[in-house]
Amino acid sequence: MSFEEEGIVQVDQEELRQLLATGAKEPILVDVRELDEYAEAHIPGVPLIPMNTIPSFLDDFDRNASYVFICRSGKRSQNVARYLKEQGMTNVRNFAGGMLSWQGEVKDGLEWVVKHTDELYEDGK
């Protein structure tokens, strides 16, 4: 069940599972961990934009779309959601508990890393 923390809606594991099951285009899920963390285990199909690169992608985010940010424990993704909300994005949420609480399917490798050049690395290529 959703709850709010520091003005950011928190999505729990069950809600995230339901969002993934619908296959809907939104909310857009974004992993904000580091490359090595993502390569070790991530939710299949979820792209990586490391937290420290988020400001450089600010103009690339669709301000009308909804997003859920994911990290290891929920702290970095909370900070990303707060930062983007401060930048005027209104529909940003955080996955409370992060990957430490995720009990669903995971994949290893660099499946989908978003780079500055809009170049995508799939399966480490």
Automatic annotation (TrEMBL):
InterPro entries, per the entry: GlpE_sulfurtransferase, Rhodanese-like_dom, Rhodanese-like_dom_sf
Domain Rhodanese: 23-111
UniProt-listed Gene3D superfamilies: Rhodanese-like domain (3.40.250.10)
Source domain of life: Bacteria
PANTHER family: FAD-DEPENDENT OXIDOREDUCTASE, SULFURTRANSFERASE YTWF-RELATED
Official protein name in the record: Rhodanese-like domain-containing protein
